[in-house]
Design a protein that fits this description.
The chain is α/β, with parallel strands linked by helices and 263 residues long. It is built from 12 helices and 6 strands. Strands 3-2-1-4-5-6 form a 6-stranded parallel β-sheet. The radius of gyration is 19 Å and the shape is elongated.
């Protein structure tokens, strides 16, 4: 009998990829107005430079463990009370400016001051554009009466809470919100999943995990024996991690829950 549902946040309930895309589009259009660059080419260049820079910093292993991606580094403040987050907070101003300046340079524009301007613009645009999937609230409304709901998200507490502050309607649905940066380990580490079971006071058989990432949400759940549902909205290919169920839309959870509750 399923008594609780654990939801991932980014690209499961919140459409983070779309928010980042829209922020890039708006910021790159500023560069188009000034230098007549192709905004999509600039976005691609900045994404490439951001990934390379991000992985070169001493904070990279920590960000990998906690689950903070390069594009979150382009807009997060990381005001968390922890030495690793303090290092990250110190790095990100230079990182942002460098990523945008190098992206411009890749297109033949050498203007670090403008790179800084774009680097400051991107976080503003990202905060303006929170997107929630169309079915998210209907599904949570349907489930909240019947199940305990827990939000389990990788990332910096400061940044994940910022995402929740700009979509405040989400928070009241959840009995518990667990953020990897506050816990000290990220998905797929089994300990964070065991922590959720303790918070819920439930056995692994009584819980189901819903998330979009095979390597964090699904792998972590399967490691501790929690039923896993992979939401695959964009027809991604499976890898060696096999979910118990695969869906394209959150409403497809209902028949899965019915089936599990009859067992």
């Amino acid at each position: 009998m399923i008594k609780a549902i654990i939801f991932d946040l980014d690209d499961t309930l919140l459409w983070d990829q779309k928010s980042v895309k829209e922020a890039f589009t708006a910021t790159c259009q500023v560069a188009q107005q000034k230098y007549n660059v192709d905004p999509e080419a600039l976005e691609e260049a900045v994404r490439k430079e951001a990934r390379e820079l991000y992985s070169s910093y001493e904070t990279y292993p920590f960000t990998q463990m906690i689950g903070i991606n390069p594009f979150e580094g382009l807009w997060g403040n990381f005001l968390d009370d922890d030495d690793n987050f303090r290092k990250l907070k110190d790095i990100v101003p230079t990182y942002r400016k460098e990523a945008w300046s190098r992206g411009l340079k890749a297109l033949g524009i050498h203007d670090p001051e403008f790179g800084y301007e774009l680097a400051e613009r991107f976080p503003v645009e990202r905060r303006k554009n929170p997107f929630v999937y169309e079915e998210t609230f209907n599904v949570l409304d349907e489930l909240k009466e019947k199940y305990q709901l827990l939000l389990l998200t990788n990332g910096s507490p400061d940044l994940q809470n910022t995402k929740l502050e700009i979509t405040p309607e989400l928070v009241p649905y959840f009995h518990h919100i667990v953020i990897s940066g506050a816990f000290g380990r990220g998905k797929p580490d089994p300990s964070i999943f065991e922590h959720t079971l303790t918070l819920l006071s439930l056995q692994k058989e009584e819980v189901i995990m819903v998330g979009d990432n095979l390597m964090t949400d699904i792998l972590g759940a399967s490691r501790v024996g929690i039923h896993s549902v992979w939401i695959n909205r964009h027809n991604k290919e499976r890898n060696e991690v096999i979910p118990d169920y695969e869906i394209k839309h959150l409403e497809e959870l209902y028949p899965i829950l019915d089936t599990l509750n009859k067992q």
